[in-house]
Amino acid sequence: MLNVLRPAMTRLMSPLGRFLARHGVTPNMITAAGTLGTVASSLWFYPHGQLVAGSLVITFFVLADLLDGILARMTKGSTWGAFLDSTLDRVADAGVFSGLIIYLVLDGQRVLALGGLLCLVGGAVVSYAKARAEGLGMTANVGIAERGERLLVVLVVAFLDGLGVPYVLAVGLWGLAVASVITVGQRMHVVYRQAVDHDAH
């Protein structure tokens, strides 16, 4: 869904990418810094109940995920860089949801914390399904809750909850949990059809 915005974001951030490339900054540096910043800010701001500030700071670091891709295309990124980016994306996602879950537990919202945990697990399975499909020579680029959508939803609802909007965090997390389950089903269905066709030949 958010892939339609990627070209516009790429054009917007390309000048910064060229500036960093000229000064010796590598995609791997951006990837590592973005992940470290995301995890650190998630585990600091969210558990302390600072949802508005946390969401804004985390969003800043999440944008590094776009910037490292832009840099990689400018500098002919490596296979190791691609692996590092995908792996650290999972670390960053875990940091965001873990920080929110800790906040909910400390705030006494244990049922909603369970919803956050389901989002964390569901997101991991969504990512694994795609990676496993690609490892078998197939594709699974489908789903209503890909990584970009999951991050967008959790950051927006956490921000709005911090502003005092009622029920938005509950609606967002439970909705995201359901969407993650649906996405896993969509990817399994797509891979199943490819696998059956492959085995038939």
TrEMBL record:
Active-site residue list: 89 (proton acceptor)
Entry GO MF terms: magnesium ion binding; phosphotransferase activity, for other substituted phosphate groups
Biological pathway: Lipid metabolism; Phospholipid metabolism; phosphatidylinositol phosphate biosynthesis
Transmembrane segment boundaries: 20-45, 51-71, 91-106, 112-131, 151-177
Major localisation: membrane
Keyword Cell membrane on entry: yes
Protein name: Phosphatidylinositol phosphate synthase
